[in-house]
Design a protein that fits this description.
By secondary structure, this protein is α+β, with helices and mostly antiparallel strands. Helix content is about 60%, strand content about 15%.
């Protein structure tokens, strides 16, 4: 008989086996260690901060400065030295493109969130695919061990028959050769299982140290490989394609950003308080407000800006390019 086949050690039925480390635990570790996932989370954080900036357009801006001057020339003033603390406060109350700026920032967040979900799904299915291959190999190894027992029993009967002359010895040699071929095929499958573990590490960064303790229930494997592709239509596939949805949101962000670049009308609250820091010869005491202090409103209407108009046209052209690329993919 050929040498002992490794499949002879696979006595446990993988259909009934559970593992200490299964799919969800591995995926969680993979996502934690993925630099790409961490980078996308940082991009989402940056996009959310940008959204907060756009939503807080009305938040006041304040600056404080000190102006110290020595005056000269005519007419001669009673005091030739001033020192003022100047507080400027402004707040945007309205902008004709504010809504589009907020929508563009929201599309930026959405695009990155969808891209993160797509990358997480990619890693999930990579892990699932390799564990499925490993589990199918284990099941093959188990089935092969059962079949080998029957073959060995048949071979023993053939040997006994050849010993008493009931069958030619050539039949026995052919049976032994077939068993050796069978063992080689099973050994090749088992070697492939070890390769799957190595490829899992290369693809996801997850290293399996105790390989017998890692796997998934075989029913999960059956559900995975028996998913029927014809249950989906093109519209469903496009609707559920996170990468396309992310790119669509990014294209909308480009469009809205382009359209909001050239803001025509804005309304702001403005205030400037000038406070004397020194006593002067005309009776102004430290802490007094000068009569140049004011509060009011400012309205700006942009008539023409070549740079902004040109930048807007360039951004809209980039949007059309992105949109056409997406439409080509959806055909």
């Amino acid at each position: 008989i050929a040498g002992v086949c490794a499949c002879g050690l696979a006595n446990a039925n993988p259909m009934e086996k559970r593992y200490p480390v299964e799919l969800e635990q591995i995926v969680e570790k993979v996502l934690e260690k993925s630099f790409e996932i961490q980078a996308l989370k940082e991009r989402i954080n940056a996009a959310e901060l940008s959204l907060n900036v756009e939503k807080g357009y009305y938040m006041p801006k304040a600056t404080i400065a000190n102006e110290s001057k020595r005056l000269y020339g005519k007419p001669v003033l009673p005091s030739d030295t001033t020192s003022d603390a100047i507080l400027n406060i402004s707040s945007k109350l309205y902008g004709s493109e504010t809504g589009k700026k907020i929508n563009a920032a929201e599309m930026g967040v959405l695009s990155n969130v969808l891209l993160l979900q797509q990358k997480e799904l990619e890693l999930y299915y990579k892990v699932l695919s390799y564990l499925s291959k490993i589990e199918r190999t284990r099941y093959y190894e188990y089935e092969a061990s059962l079949l080998r027992r029957e073959v060995v029993q048949y071979l023993e009967r053939a040997r006994n028959a050849a010993r008493v002359g009931a069958s030619p010895s050539s039949d026995l040699r052919e049976s032994e050769l077939n068993l050796a071929r069978f063992d080689d095929a099973v050994l090749a499958a088992i070697s492939a299982k070890e390769r799957y573990f190595d490829e899992l590490k290369q693809e996801t960064g997850y290293e399996v140290t105790e390989r017998d303790e890692v796997g998934i229930p075989y029913q999960v494997v059956r559900d995975f490989i028996e998913t029927r592709s014809y249950d989906f239509n093109d519209a469903q596939i496009l609707a559920n394609n996170l990468e396309i949805r992310s790119k669509t949101a990014a294209a909308e962000q480009t469009r809205l950003s382009a359209e909001s670049q050239n803001e025509k009308l804005s309304l702001s609250f403005i205030s400037e308080a000038q406070m004397s820091a020194v006593e002067d010869k005309i009776g102004v005491q430290p802490g007094d407000f000068r009569n140049k202090s004011y509060v009011g409103f400012r309205v700006d209407y942009q008539l023409y800006d070549f740079q902004k108009s040109t930048s807007q046209m360039a951004a809209l052209a980039a949007y059309k390019d992105e949109k056409n690329t997406l439409l080509d993919r959806e055909r």
